[in-house]
Fold this protein.
Amino acid sequence: MWIPVELLWAYIAAITLLTLTPGVDTLLVMRNTGRGGFGDGAVTSFGICCGLFIHATLSALGISILLVETAWAFTAVKWAGACYLIWLGIMSLRKALARQQPDNTAQMAAPTPQSARVSRLASFREGVLSNLLNPKTALFYMALLPQFIDPAGPALAQSMFLAGLHFVLAMIWQCAVAALVLKSREFAVGQGVRRALNGLTGGLFMAIGVKLGLE
C-alpha cells in the first residue's frame, strides 16, 4: 500500500462529507426512485458512481488539468452539464404538468419485462451523464486526489483505489436515500403529491443548471 494510513483516513473523511452533501446526484437518485422504485434509484446510483472511475483516470493521466486550463474545453463541458440538468428539469416538469390519470396500482406493481429493462438502462445512462457532465466533479478530483497520492507509487492504481472507496461510500449513501424515498411513498401515495414532488425536483434541476451555466 503506497498511501499512508493517516492520509487514507483523511481522504475517507473528505469524501464522506462530500457524499453526504446534497447535490445533483442525490436529486437524480430521489427522482428516479420515485419514478421506478428502489431498483431504478440503485441503478442510477451505480451509473453515477461508475463515472467516478472515469474522473479518477482522467485526473491520474493529467487530462483533467488540461481540460480545466483550456478555457474553451472547460466552458463546453460546463454548458453541456448545464443543458443536461435543464433537460432533466424539463422532463420532471412535464410529468408534473401532465394530465392527471386515474391511479392503477395493479398496473404499476407489475411492469412488463421490456419496460423494466429499458428503464434500468435509461437510469444507468442518466447517472453516468450526470456525473461526467458535472465540471465540479472533475475539479474536485483534480484538486483532491493528488493530495493523497504517493508520487513514488503508480498514480493510476492509487487513483482507482481512492475512487473505489468513493464508489462504495456513495453507493451506500445513495441507496439509503433511495430506500428512504421508497418508504416515504407509503405515506404520500396521492397523485397530487407525486406531481408536486416532480414539479419541485424539476424546478431544482433547472435552477442548478442555470446556476452552473452562469458561473
Notes: The CA atoms of residues 34 and 184 lie 10 Å apart. The chain has one domain: 5-16+26-96+124-214. Residues 5-16+26-96+124-214 form one domain.
